[in-house]
Amino acid sequence: MIPRPAAAPVLSAPMTSAAPSLAGWTAVVLAGGPGTRMRSASPKALHPVAGVPMVRLVCDLLRAAGCTAIVVVAREAIDEIGVAAGEHVRMARQDGGRGTAHAVLASREAARESGPLLLLHGDMPLLTTRTLLEMAGRHLAAPSSLTFLTAYLSDPKGYNRVERRNGKVHGIVAEADLSPAMRGAPEVDAGMYAVEAGWLWHALTAVTPAPSGELALSDLIGLAVRGEGVEAYQVAETAEVLPVNDRVDLARAERILRDRVRERLMLEGVTLLDPATTYVDAGVEVGEDTVLLPGTTLSGRTRIAGGCRIGPNAVLVDTTVGARTSIGASTIEGSMIGDDVEIGPYCHLRPGSLIGAGVHLGNYVEVKESTIGARTKAGHFCYIGDTTIGADVNIGAGTITANYDGAEKHRTVIGTGAFIGSDTVLVAPVEIGAGARTAAGAVVTQDVPDGATVMGVPARLRPPTNEGGRRA
Description:
Elements: E1 26-30, E2 48-49, E3 52-53, H1 54-64, E4 69-74, H2 78-85, E5 89-93, H3 100-106, E6 116-121, H4 129-141, E7 146-152, E8 161-165, E9 168-173, E10 187-196, H5 197-204, H6 219-226, E11 230-234, H7 247-267, E12 271-272, E13 279-280, E14 285-286, E15 291-292, E16 297-299, E17 303-304, E18 309-310, E19 315-317, E20 320-321, E21 326-327, E22 331-333, E23 336-337, E24 342-343, E25 348-349, E26 354-355, E27 360-368, E28 371-372, E29 377-385, E30 387-389, E31 394-395, E32 400-402, E33 412-414, E34 419-420, E35 425-427, E36 430-432, E37 437-438, E38 443-444, E39 453-455, E40 460-461
Parallel strand pairs: 1-4, 1-6, 4-5, 7-11, 12-15, 13-16, 14-17, 15-18, 16-19, 17-20, 18-21, 19-22, 20-23, 21-24, 22-25, 23-26, 24-27, 25-27, 26-28, 27-29, 28-30, 29-31, 30-33, 31-34, 32-35, 33-36, 34-37, 35-38, 37-39
Antiparallel strand pairs: 2-3, 6-10, 7-10, 8-9, 39-40
């Protein structure tokens, strides 16, 4: 764990109550960072933290706080960032990289001319709803033009510093302009602002370009000090405002956010036998009384109901799991699993697999785009691909559905109550009727009627027998 900076004295005014929600607010999310320090071809906002793109984490946080309008500003990969940001987000393009104030100006047409605005960065994945709401509440309760977020950092290098006189904010000093007395000043501008839209659009026209030609959003603080005043809200947990600029920052954010996810799950009634070796993405949900064993990874849109036992070393991606299901050291992707199912160890369920209630899949069973009915059992070493299996079917060890003829995939259908003998090869397209049986080693190339038994290579109907059990 990265050590947290020591707590700093609170110089801001006493905290006001949080806003009930951000309903009526417009949030402008600056996601134009090109990822230069990330040494990446992808924009910084698209890099995931705990399995979720940073821009999505920020936008989801705003939605959770009740924000009714979100504008994301980007310079490149507009469509990709728009998709990653999620639903009901308006995109704005910043032409060129002329600084943060220029990026906010690019959002004007998509934002609004009046009402409260929240300006924040898309590379702050550790922000919390509490901070958003409390900062909004501080702004609504104050008579000031602008409220901005501050933090006390043990190492403030690289940040603009907050200048105070008699406890009140007097302005912002760029790091390059710091006097020797201010170099160790720990309070920094954390880069999030609450403003009234009417004031903002007017104030942005007064921002003076730096020698580089960039327009800095932090210059608004000096304008507000000379106008109707400014409020500073100090974040409670400094980790929230740590940006992600390079891969080292990304790894730090990953550790912190995954720790939060694990803590949330445990407080919600989930047992993690070894939290440090259990990896859960930010978008995953797990029900009460589920146990996650060491080495388990839950990612994407995975949803697990209560009373399950997952792991050790299970990997679930975009998978829904019913109640009281047990999954051993198996890999499951894009599948839906019912209640009271037993899977593994060493199974692989590929995308499109639907597993009914009470199914048992033993070791080394691979399932691909198949539906398996309730209470069906496949105990050992099977491949089930492009198959529909009814309820109460027994799949013998070594069974293979030969679904690919070298050009196209074909389906296999196995009826309710069928018995598939060990080492059976089902050459698709083929249908096994309800209650039908295949003998061990059968190679089935033709449909099998309900209740019939087939055997041999290629499989044929078993000859009838007389009362003594001999073939007639």
